[in-house]
Amino acid sequence: MCHQTVVISTKQRGQFQSIRFSIDGKDETPINSRVGLRASVMALCLCRYIILSCHPRHRHQALSATARNNNFSSLYCPPNHCQKFTSALSIDPRHRHKRFRASFCAQSSSIMQNPPQGYRRNVGICLMNPSSKKIFAASRLDIPDAWQMPQGGIDESEDPRTAAARELREETGVTTADIVAEVPYWLTYDFPPAVREKLNRQWGSDWKGQAQKWFLFKFNGNDDEINLLGDGTEKAEFGEWAWMSAEQVINHAVDFKKPVYEEVLSVFSTYLQ
């Protein structure tokens, strides 16, 4: 039987915890109901990967052992996901991977694509310099001491990936960059009262915060491509820019965005080393 071990990071009570996830359960922490929805969905995605990457003769063993050793009967996720997973055990091993791939992909996609209500849909862009592994950050013109990574709203019916490339171009002028990773769930932050009042007056809305889909871009150009006037289609937002380490980016961010930045950079950490 094939053996796979994956580490999932999840946030519990404001702190990150790593959960080691395995097929055989040896010397690993089983996933259970305390993990939470985000890690549960990630775990199911990883189960799909494990099942499909195993040799067909071993998939039945892999799926059965994963469910048994990681206690999926108590996994906290929408009932239809657990049902799809457990029912897969009864499917003929010769057809299981096809059924599991079709049913789970459709279900997981809907979860990832629906942000929580009351939050403005937004994208965040982590632009990485591949040679130094540092991250683009810029100071806001309206709040000079506040530095941030590019971000912006998602237009009606716009795909988040398309929105991320558009916002990167509009805010930095960068077009020679490729998406190499994304955070597979929405991250939210609440506006402080004064910020909420100001922005909602500006937008004519009543958002309590933003729900963000984050993407990691690899910068393929030269520094002289970066232009804080952007592509000229929108008003400039930034005054200065710099390549920063992950720690510097977090330290320079406004307080209400720091938890999101910490989680984003934790997810992308393997690419930034």
UniProtKB/TrEMBL annotation:
Protein name per Swiss-Prot or TrEMBL: Nudix hydrolase 26, chloroplastic
Domain of life from the UniProt record: Eukaryota
UniProt KW keywords: Hydrolase, Magnesium, Manganese, Metal-binding
GO biological process terms, semicolon-separated: nucleoside phosphate metabolic process; ribose phosphate metabolic process
InterPro entries: Nudix_hydrolase (IPR020476), NUDIX_hydrolase-like_dom_sf (IPR015797), NUDIX_hydrolase_CS (IPR020084), NUDIX_hydrolase_dom (IPR000086), RppH (IPR022927)
HAMAP family from the UniProt entry: Nudix_RppH
A GO molecular-function descriptor: guanosine-3',5'-bis(diphosphate) 3'-diphosphatase activity
